[in-house]
Structures are given as structure tokens and as C-alpha cells.
Amino acid sequence: MSIEQANTSTHLSEAARRRGLNGLLVYTFFMVTGFAMLMPLVAVHYVNDVGLAAAAVGLALAVRQLTQQGLALLGGVLSDRYGARRMICLGVLLRAAGFASLAFAADLPLLLAAMVLSALGGAMFEAPYQASIAALTDERSRPRYYAISNWVSGVATTLGPLLGVALLHFDFRIVCLTAAACFALNFLIALRLLPQVEMPPQPPPLRHGLDLVRGNRPFIRLVALMMLYWFVAVQINISFPLLAQRLTGSVDSVGAMFALSAGLTVALQYGLVRWLEKRLSSAQVLVLGVTVMSLAAGAIGFVADFAGFLVCVAGFSIGALMTRPTQQTLIAGLADPRALGTFLGVSSLSLAVGGGIGNVAGGWLIDLSAARQWPWLPWSVFCLVGLLSAAGLHWTTRVRGRIEAAAAHS
């Protein structure tokens, strides 16, 4: 039985569903704030202050990405079996412990250990969190809720880096502990605001959801193509901050970069996406957004100052805000409601593989481009990979649309 079926069996009132969705918005704010104030500064701190190579820090970020998204399937399967709220509570406590331990990680082994611990927390709460949204919304309300949720994320992404940079002037440990406190607070929010769902006396076998995933080929194709997308998208946390700091010589430029990105999200996320979805399908908006992101990343290879870099960041951010709610809508729409947690866990593999490779490749390409004096190299690679993703998504969604149209007329 999935979260959605369990909700139906307990007859959640409309007020309870609304309270749960509002609670998830509050949860989203602190989740993103805690992450955004710390994670973009990891590369800057460990490269510039600790003296690690960018490739080594990229490896640590990749380990976190691969561990969290790779094990998110386990979190999704467990949420289908034991309930979403239990897994969310466990996950945020592990994430809080992981972020707190970063305050005392002074070398690569300790950095890797802290990253793994925080990743385990994310693996436990990410799929249950996404599945809860999918379960408490329907096809009519889901796009609007995702747009609002991503707007809240934009506000948090604006405040997070600014707060992180401000605290960094005192001590990196304070940044880590404050970020950990955000996730500790989310433990209380989950307990108080998220609905308690009674699970069935005889839960389905753990392989039941995996069998449903294997039979859903459109879902698998979408997940595979999103790996290329995430390869490019994660550069905002590795390649972008490193280049911003190198162009200006100041860590404050990282905060300015994220403030611009998040400010555009706050200003445009809800209105632009809703306007586009009235004129284009979710799939078309997704393809357009990935294309804009890719071209903006490629253009960075041709800029020589921070102002030009910020123009490219703005284009990248506009493309990203178009992709976030549309990919979530498409994934939730393709997921089988009998095993939402498992499906949302499998979808995290796209970020695990694509994001993990993107973090390692991003750090390595930045180092290589500096050593060989090829400033265009990393950005050309990011552009090419992104355009391949856009082309694949266009072809896949177009073919699926034709099949569905033919079935409707048969």
C-alpha cells in the first residue's frame, strides 16, 4: 500500500491535507535554507582555507550526492512500508548530525565521513518528502503546489547563502552548526504538522514497488535522461562558486551569485512557470528550460569578468526555475500511485548518477582548464551534455505524446 492509498484508508479530511501541505512548505523552507547556507561554501572553504584540491572536494561532494540519491530508493521503499513521517523524522536527525560533524572535519577523510552521514539523512527523508507531496495533491492541484513550493525554495535559496557568507566571516563552524539547527527544527515540524498515516497490518513485499518500476518504461527513460540534466545542474554548487571566487578574489562573490540566482527564482518562479504552462505542455517547458540552462553554461566560457559571469548565471537560473516544477510534475505523474515512495526513490537515481559524475567532472575540469589555460573547456562540456539531455527529452516526450494520442483515438 502506498502513501496515497494509506491516506485514503484513513480518510484524511481536506483540512488535514491542507495542514499537511502547509507543513511541508514550512519544512521546505528550513530544509533548503539549511542546505543552501552550507553546501555552496564547502568547495570554497576546503579549497581556499583548508588547501584541498578542487577535484578532491568535488569527490567529496560526489560521494554525498551518490550516497544520498543512490540510497534514496531505500528511503522510498521504507516509507511505503513504515510511513513517510517516520522516515522524514529519522532523516532530518541524521542530516543534522552530519552537518554538525562538518564543523570538525579538518581533512579529506573526515570531510568524506561527514558527507556520508549527512547523505544518509537525505536518503531517508528525500523520497518520503516528495512522496508526501504527491500523495496529498492530485493531478489538478499538483502543478500549482510545486510552483509554490519551488517559490518557497527560491526564497530560502536567497537567504541561505547570504546567511552562510555572513556567518563565514566569523567561523565556518558556526555555518555548519546553524545549518544543522535548521534540520533539527524540521524534526519538530514533521512531528507537529505532517499527518500521521496508519500503515496496513500486512505491508506489501519490499520488491512489489520495484516490480512496478521495472514495468514502467516511460518512467525509466525519463529518469535516465534526467541524469544528463543533473550533470549540468549540479555545477551551480561546484564549478560556479569556484569560478566566481577566482574572478573576484572574494568569497562574497559567491553569496552575490546565489543571491542573483535565488532572487530571479523568487521573482519569476511562480508567475513565469504558470504563464508558460498555459501555452506549452510540462514536457515542452522542461525541454526549453534545459536548453536555456545549457546555452547559458556554454556562454560562461566566453566571459572574462564577473559582470559577464553574472549575466550567464541569470540565464542559467531562469532555465533552472523552468525545469524544477515541470520535472517534478512529470515524474509524479508517471509514478504508480501504488508505490509512490519507491518510484520517487528510483527517480533520485538520476541525481545520484548524473549529479555525482557532474561534481567529480566539474572539479576536475576546473583544475584541468586552469592548468592548460583552456577556460572554455568545462563550460563547453556542460553545454554539450545539457543539449543532449534536451534533445533526448524532446524526442522521448514527443514519441510518448503520439502513442497516447493514438491510444485515445483507438
From TrEMBL:
Chief location of this protein within or outside the cell: membrane
Superkingdom assignment: Bacteria
Transmembrane segment boundaries: 21-44, 112-136, 148-166, 172-194, 222-242, 254-273, 280-300, 306-323, 343-364, 376-395
The Major facilitator superfamily (MFS) profile domain, residue ranges: 20-398
Localisation: Cell membrane
Keywords carried by this UniProt record: Cell membrane, Membrane, Transmembrane, Transmembrane helix, Transport
Protein topology in the membrane: Multi-pass membrane protein
Keyword presence, Protein biosynthesis: no
Protein name: MFS transporter
Organism: Lysobacter gummosus
